């Protein structure tokens, strides 16, 4: 991607760039736009997977825009094709056909590399094969951290523009949480750390992590370990029921070693309230690359205890421990929990800084798009 730099849009160029974004309605993509003004970019709405003539509004998967036929049919409606994620179910051959359709219609192809290791795949080979198509074919690459950019350079010989992850929590909620924390009395000295097993992504092996955190929390006066998980994993009738994990959590809860909360997926509002209620959130990942969960914690002032796999520590300040596919270093996680307990919670990311960051990200995208189109 040589020759393309984040320098802000050319004020003398009033063109609006129309972007076929895959997806468009995801919060990350929404926060690539300026929060203050028209930033010169229009992103097409996600087509409804059941009726391509309608926008999907919040439902975007499976992405219709990945179909080469859609590209050819709608080529006159967009200037740039920008892939973020959502191609998990596409074969390398199908992705090559997408690239061919973009070449045929003369549309520049931008790819933001969020994941260098897919957190939903137990083995890496399938995702690697997809990346072997997308990264060499892209006219421009973006990624979120210098470490990810260095890996892209090392593996494919391509240069990626590094742009930080924008805020995840909406500005109004960030402001409300920050005001609440400023206006609240100091805590009673307790320490609440959360581990959320979600629906057990392949990147998670949460049982060793939870055991280690429980041991550490038991040594902290006023310490509480809260474990959340979805009903599909932690109830016997769930489609992804994990009997061993469920049994341990029920038994540990009965012994008073942790608080267990089983529920369906949080809404955004419920998720923000949950994260804001914690002093620290443990990311129980053994592989991965970047994390929107981490960014939400930064927005809300919740400390993050993150593994040293991937590039989480480059996204923002974290308390690190060692965990990867070879196993968990229990001692390092034990230490991390104690460090979090005796360290003041990090202040939330300042809202003016998050706004400024979005303006910079928006300008960098506009500059890149115009460089490709013009």
From TrEMBL:
The species this protein was found in: Herbiconiux oxytropis
Record SUPFAM superfamilies: UDP-Glycosyltransferase/glycogen phosphorylase
Identification of the protein by name = Glycosyltransferase family 1 protein
């Amino acid at each position: 991607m040589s020759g393309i730099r984040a320098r802000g849009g050319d004020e003398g160029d009033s063109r609006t760039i129309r972007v076929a974004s895959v997806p468009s309605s995801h919060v990350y993509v929404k926060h690539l736009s300026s929060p203050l003004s028209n930033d010169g970019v229009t992103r097409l709405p996600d087509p409804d997977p059941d009726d391509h003539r309608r926008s999907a509004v919040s439902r975007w998967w499976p992405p219709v825009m990945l179909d080469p036929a859609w590209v050819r049919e709608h080529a006159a409606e967009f200037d740039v094709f920008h892939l973020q994620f959502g191609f998990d179910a596409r074969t390398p051959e199908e992705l090559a056909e997408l690239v061919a359709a973009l070449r045929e219609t003369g549309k520049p192809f931008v790819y933001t590399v969020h994941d260098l290791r897919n957190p939903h795949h137990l083995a890496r080979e399938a995702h690697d094969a997809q990346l072997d198509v997308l990264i060499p074919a892209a006219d421009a690459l973006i990624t979120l951290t210098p470490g990810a950019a260095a890996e892209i350079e090392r593996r494919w010989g391509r240069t990626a523009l590094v742009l930080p992850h924008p805020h995840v929590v909406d500005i109004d909620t960030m402001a409300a949480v920050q005001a609440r924390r400023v206006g609240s009395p100091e805590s009673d000295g307790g320490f609440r750390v959360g581990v959320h097993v979600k629906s057990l992504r392949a990147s998670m092996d949460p049982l060793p992590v939870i055991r280690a955190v429980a041991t550490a929390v038991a040594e902290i006066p006023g310490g509480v370990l809260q474990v959340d998980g979805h009903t599909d994993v932690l109830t016997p009738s769930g489609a992804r029921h994990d009997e061993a994990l469920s049994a341990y959590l029920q038994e540990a809860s009965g012994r008073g070693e942790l608080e267990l909360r089983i529920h369906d997926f949080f809404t955004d509002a419920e998720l923000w309230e949950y994260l804001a209620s914690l002093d620290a959130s443990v990311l129980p990942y053994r592989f991965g690359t970047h994390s929107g969960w981490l960014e939400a914690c930064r927005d809300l002032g919740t400390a993050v205890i993150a593994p040293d796999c991937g590039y989480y520590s480059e996204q923002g300040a974290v308390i690190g421990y060692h965990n990867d596919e070879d196993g968990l270093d229990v001692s390092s996680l034990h230490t991390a929990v104690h460090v979090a307990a005796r360290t003041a919670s990090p202040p939330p990311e300042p809202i003016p800084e998050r706004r400024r960051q979005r303006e910079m990200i928006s300008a960098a995208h506009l500059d890149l798009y115009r460089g490709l189109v013009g």
